[in-house]
Amino acid sequence: MSKRTYYILLLFLLGYFVTEAQTNEIKVRVDGLSCPFCAYTLEKKIKETGVVEKLNIDFDEGIMFLNLKEGAKISDEVIKRKVEEAGFTVRKIIRQNSEEQNLK
């Protein structure tokens, strides 16, 4: 292989891994959060998935921040189902790679 081919391959792989790393951070706008007890209920449901490394909930703003474990994935449908099981409604899911979904 030529040097040019190696450089192209290297750039492709770097771009792939950067994109994959970015999707490990998810921001979820949740309707109905109003107190620490609400946040705790939601946290328990989300952690049941087993893929969350770090979870922060800002109940004043109604936003849940998820950091997934290395190599872990979670679909928007699973997030939405777990939020609904906790008694809340998902309004928006924003993945770090700017993939955005409004749920109304």
Task: Write a brief caption for the model.
With 104 residues, the protein is of the alpha+beta class. Helix content is 40%, strand content 29%. It has one domain: Alpha-Beta Plaits (2-Layer Sandwich).
Structure commentary:
The protein has 104 residues and is of the alpha+beta class. The protein has a single domain, classed as Alpha-Beta Plaits. Helices cover 40% and strands 29% of the residues. It is built from 3 helices and 5 strands. It has a 5-stranded antiparallel beta sheet with strand order 2-3-1-4-5, with helices on one face. The chain is elongated. The termini are far apart. The C terminus is likely disordered.
Topology:
Blueprint: H1 3-22, E1 25-31, H2 36-47, E2 52-58, E3 63-68, H3 76-85, E4 89-95, E5 100-102
Antiparallel strand pairs: 1-3, 1-4, 2-3, 4-5
Question: How many helical elements?
Answer: 3
Number of domains: 1
Helix content: 40-55%
| Name of the top-level CATH class | Alpha Beta
Q: Which regions are unreliable across 5 or more consecutive residues at pLDDT < 50?
A: 18-22, 98-102
What is the level-2 CATH architecture name? 2-Layer Sandwich
Profile the largest sheet: 5 strands, antiparallel
| Terminal Cα span | 51 Å
Q: Mean of the pLDDT scores?
A: 81
Structural class of the secondary elements? alpha+beta
- How many strands appear in the DSSP assignment? 5
Order of helices and strands: HEHEEHEE
CATH topology: Alpha-Beta Plaits
Instruction: Give the radius of gyration.
Output: 17 Å
Outline type: elongated
DSSP strand content: 25-35%
Strand order within the widest sheet? 2-3-1-4-5
